[in-house]
Amino acid sequence: MGISSGNITPILSILPEILLLILALVVLGLDLGLKKFSPALIGWVTVVGLIFSAIGGVMISGHQSGGLYIWGGMLRQDAAASVFQVIFITGAALTAFFALEDSKCVSAEFYFLLLISTLGMCLLAASSDLIMIYLSLELASIPLYILAGFHYRETSSVEAGLKYMLYGAVASTIMVFGFTFLYGFSGTTQLYAINAAIQTGQIPPMVTTMAVMLILAGVGYKISAVPFHFWAPDVYEGAPTVVAGFISTASKAAGFAVLLRLALTILPVLSPYSPYLLAAMAVASMLVGNLLAINQKNFKRLLAYSSIAQAGYILVGVAASNNLGAAGVTYYLMAYLVTNLTAFALAQVIGQANSNDDISSLAGLTQRSPVLAFSLLVSLLSLGGIPPFAGFVGKLLVFSAGVQAGMAWLVIVAVLNSVLSLYYYLKVLKIAFLDHPRETPLIKIETNSWRIAFIVCLAGILILGVIILPWYGWSITAASSLALY
Amino acid sequence: MAPISYYLVLAIIMFFIGILGVLIRRNALIVFMSLELMFNAANLVFVAFSRQYQALNGQISVFFVMTVAAAEVAIGLALMVTIFRTKHSIDVDQMNNLKG
């Protein structure tokens, strides 16, 4: 049924997933014996294990050019899946390091849930069957519901968990309902086989457009695109900051991984309107995210609305549905991972020092910690798309893909929105750099792990923004492997 | 043998009753019941098409959907119990610590 290349066995091609599962069990096992000695050790074990599984992912990706169907067509191991798996695993490793700074999150359960969620995302990126997409989406989401409510003594955290779960359950049900109709039209659940089946059938486009809209509801929730974004501000504000960072980067990247696969395979066949639906979602996300971000008082809420707007920019690349668009989305997600994790890591330590997340308490950050103030500058300018930082290259790629696909109007809206977004990013920077501090507790960073992860993130922002070619080549390989049958 | 359109219409009605329940009801438990209705509407469509095509994959999907729904409800109930301890209510309108 597909292009099979080389002689790698099915077991070997899901090596990263297998390593993640073993690691998750090891973490739980270690908890039994080691908890009394050093809880931080579990975090370090998690990160070392994640690095190994990322290496596994890179190794198997070198073995194949086209797509390889494994496990009865449930998964399709291709370059896109590998690249996204490395993105998720990097995000999980950085989050694991950041979490060591938050004493309420240092426990084996936390790392176990983080690893299982990452496992779900890795499977999601490789899924090529409707059942598998649904199962791995849920495997990625359900641990996140618990993680969002992980500070279970704080009402706001539990509330965030419950809201995240309610919206998530509704969205995934709507998506399954859409899947049932896809199955009904084609008689198969295999993604790449649906294409062929649909082209021969006589189904009214209105019905298929309905199915596309139902499916977009489920994926739109995962990427927090308007109009499925209502959970995002509440969850980002209430959830532990490290978890919010993970949800806004790795989980969003997982949503885009599956959306890209759908957009390059079945969506255009199903409905001629699907690029316009995606474009409409992009415009709505950018406008709603940017306009509502302007008046936010809470830094984490501001990041939530900014992340809704970022989903809009990335959707421009998805709506373009061409090779450059898919590569741009991949590059953007890599850049966004390091950038937004930096911003959330800052929110985490500053929030812990001030015991609130208000933007006004960022005042005089330059005097309290010049290094953190400089990092805030780097990460917010990268979010705003200013060169030489990573965000600029991501924006450039998705916008040029939009122009290439003949959607110049969409790109104009997106560029105007980036200018709008600079207003509130610079407003935060103005408070951090020019205002006088009202309170001056020293911002203390207890753990080396937090420092290491933070330096990696900052280095990532600069490297992705300056040394473009290797990552761009990687993204192009991933993009072109998606559409190969 | 009833034609497939009967099953589809029934499923769509069930799905919309479920959506209305989620949107209108304020008790988190009732919201969960409405969610189950939506899940079962999807299951009904899977089974109906599966019989139409005389193929098993639709029926197998139903097992997965049911399992995931059960896992989801388990997490949801746990979160509800935790929230009930502090708020003594599971009214979704009273979950307003987070807004702005």
UniProtKB/TrEMBL annotation, chain A:
The enzyme's E.C. designation: 7.1.1.-
Main location: membrane
Catalyzed reactions per annotation: a quinone + NADH + 5 H(+)(in) = a quinol + NAD(+) + 4 H(+)(out)
Any one Gene Ontology molecular-function term assigned to this protein's record: NADH dehydrogenase (quinone) (non-electrogenic) activity
Pfam annotation, one family: Proton_antipo_M
GO cellular component, one term: plasma membrane
Keyword DNA damage: no
Location in or out of the cell: Cell membrane; Endomembrane system; Membrane
Domain NADH:quinone oxidoreductase/Mrp antiporter transmembrane residues, every copy: 127-421
Transmembrane segments: 12-34, 41-60, 80-98, 110-127, 133-152, 164-183, 203-221, 242-264, 276-295, 302-320, 332-350, 371-394, 406-426, 452-474
UniProt keywords, alphabetically: Cell membrane, Membrane, NAD, Quinone, Translocase, Transmembrane, Transmembrane helix, Transport, Ubiquinone
Membrane topology field: Multi-pass membrane protein
GO terms of biological process kind: ATP synthesis coupled electron transport
InterPro entries listed in its UniProt record: NADH-Q_OxRdtase_suN/2, NADH_UbQ_OxRdtase, ND/Mrp_TM
Family: Belongs to the complex I subunit 2 family.
Quaternary structure note: NDH-1 is composed of 14 different subunits. Subunits NuoA, H, J, K, L, M, N constitute the membrane sector of the complex.
PANTHER family linked to this entry: NADH DEHYDROGENASE
Described purpose of this protein according to its UniProt entry: NDH-1 shuttles electrons from NADH, via FMN and iron-sulfur (Fe-S) centers, to quinones in the respiratory chain. The immediate electron acceptor for the enzyme in this species is believed to be ubiquinone. Couples the redox reaction to proton translocation (for every two electrons transferred, four hydrogen ions are translocated across the cytoplasmic membrane), and thus conserves the redox energy in a proton gradient.
Protein name as catalogued: NADH-quinone oxidoreductase subunit N
Annotated source species: Leptolinea tardivitalis
Automatic annotation (TrEMBL), chain B:
Organism the protein comes from: Leptolinea tardivitalis
CC per GO annotation: NADH dehydrogenase complex; plasma membrane
GO terms for biological process, alphabetical: ATP synthesis coupled electron transport
EC number, UniProt record: 7.1.1.-
Keywords, in A-Z order: Cell membrane, Membrane, NAD, Oxidoreductase, Quinone, Translocase, Transmembrane, Transmembrane helix, Transport, Ubiquinone
Localisation per UniProt entry: Cell membrane; Membrane
Entry superkingdom: Bacteria
Keyword flag Zinc: no
Membrane topology according to the record: Multi-pass membrane protein
Function according to Swiss-Prot or TrEMBL: NDH-1 shuttles electrons from NADH, via FMN and iron-sulfur (Fe-S) centers, to quinones in the respiratory chain. The immediate electron acceptor for the enzyme in this species is believed to be ubiquinone. Couples the redox reaction to proton translocation (for every two electrons transferred, four hydrogen ions are translocated across the cytoplasmic membrane), and thus conserves the redox energy in a proton gradient.
Family (UniProt): Belongs to the complex I subunit 4L family.
Pfam families noted in UniProt: Oxidored_q2 (PF00420)
Gene Ontology molecular-function annotations: NADH dehydrogenase (quinone) (non-electrogenic) activity; quinone binding
Membrane spanning residue stretches: 6-24, 29-49, 61-84
NCBIfam families linked: PRK05715.1-2 (NF004320), PRK05715.1-3 (NF004321), PRK05715.1-5 (NF004323)
The reaction(s) this protein catalyses: a quinone + NADH + 5 H(+)(in) = a quinol + NAD(+) + 4 H(+)(out)
Protein name, as recorded: NADH-quinone oxidoreductase subunit K
Matches recorded under PANTHER family: NADH DEHYDROGENASE SUBUNIT 4L-RELATED, NADH-UBIQUINONE OXIDOREDUCTASE SUBUNIT ND4L
Top EC class for this record: translocase
Complexes and interactors: NDH-1 is composed of 14 different subunits. Subunits NuoA, H, J, K, L, M, N constitute the membrane sector of the complex.
